[in-house]
Amino acid sequence: MALEPGSPGPQSVVARPSAWGGLTAILDTPAKRSTAIVVLLAVMIAIPLLPLASTPYVTTILINALLYTILALGLNIVVGYAGLLDLGYAAFFAVGAYTVGILTTTFGWTFWEAIPVAVLAAMLAGLIIGGPTLRLRSDYLAIVTLGFGEIVRITARNLQITGAASGIFGIEQPWLFGWHIHTQTDFYYVFLGLVIVGILVSARLASSRLGRAWLYVRHDEDAAEAMGINRTRVKLAAYVIGAIYGAIGGAFFAVNFTAISPQSFSFQQSTLFLMAVILGGMGKIPGVILGAFIVVLGPELLRDLGSFRYLVFAVGLLLIMLFRPSGIWPVRSR
Amino acid sequence: MADALLTLRAVTLGFAGNTVLQSVNFDVAAGSISSLIGPNGAGKTSLFNCITGFYKPQQGRIDFAGTPLVPLKPFQVTRTGIARTFQNLRLFRQMSVLENVMSGQHCRTKAGAIGAILHLPSQQREEREIRDRAAACLRLVGIAEEEWQREATTLAYGHQRRVEIARALATEPKLLLLDEPAAGLTKGEKQELIALIARIRDERKIAVLLIEHDTGLVMTISERVSVLDHGLMIAEGTPKEIQSNPRVIEAYLGAEDAEAALAL
Q: Staple B13 to which of B21, B120, B164, B209, CB 3.0 to 4.6 Å?
């Protein structure tokens, strides 16, 4: 699989327009940018208040799209920024969900006490898996992460503490300063907040010393090393930060559904997350968000087609990849 | 040599039975300009790769300012103060000229993920410093400010060579290794390169070691010249001594590089 973002394309005079992928060229003044942000935020906040959109069905689908956005943003740091092919990203999602599930049900912790532990557990898992494998060529990482994803799922299926095949249920929904987060609308806003923080973190990382180092290593490992960059360390940072996104997504997923089971963390999940990243345009934040929404909303919009919908959806994806191999975003600005 | 910055002693390198470097002894003095010449396939770039940690010699010692280099990885060698350019241009694609040069500052700075996420004052200050130092390196090599935001690989060839030198300078080296810096340059650009190398040494006190086939350029600029042939260091001396050394002339005539020998 080509991890470099497609063919070199037309030689542009202006260099890579950052992780926003061409958006900064369209919204070229701070005024335009803040207007766009305000409008977008207003729409996102207003959606559950509109009578047409406020059905539980629509809200649930949107929550799912926002959850996928968080995970795609995290995976984008690994795949899009650092160029590492991770085929087992659902493992970190599972680590986050199960840690919160176990600590809140079996041990009676609150959600807010459990979430730092979930993040630490995912970071530790990232270090254990990434530490030895990231020294090798990235092809090996794909194989190891594929195995890791399956090991986590199979372990969860077989351990008593993870509830074996039936999973964990009755996970208590959290309180936040007297606000009991329990309706779908509540969770919609929580996930929207998480997405906003996720975008901000991702954008700031992209334009930092670490973010540049990811690109240097992705483009030319030897040249990067000759510039004094420790490639293993830089890749590990991407992998672990990706793991944190996965764990946070998993933790909130667990309290939203109040029940988790091994099926939620299958290889198919990992491929869907990866699809969201590649489809929208690796390394570009707007593209990744678009990709996440397409992966979630696509099958829902085709619901009338019954069991044919996945076939139609798959053909659609193939066509997109055929005609836009480096992702949908950016829409060519010139 | 008493004031040697870099010393190689009995460095031997082989690949699958082929000896590439045979017990090479070699010194570079602090603040000097020296050249490594030799016919194609003599092992010059392999020697660079041994110094910079890309190849591990089977035998011998390489010391840089008192630090043994052989156990170090390439990124660690760069941190000790050795920077290099590549024979074939290796600029980072899809990144601007400035971003390319900023890569050199990575090993001299330390802001991590937390600083970047929170935009801590120390991280913001460091970002400005990285930019300023990269800009200073670009000015030194003479790349005009209009070109800084352009995609590096779209610049004219000669300019890309200079961006590569700027990128190496951004690592703040004590020794700069240039692998065929004049390859593909026009006559005028070669003159500019000679002036640039002198400026790097005089203004920044950086020792420069170059591999170069253009003997005219080598003889003009170098204080010391070393000649490598079939992995053996066959001569070392001032340009004048090298030009009249019978072993050197033989090595060049023996090789297909007769033209180079005539130029000597």
A: B21
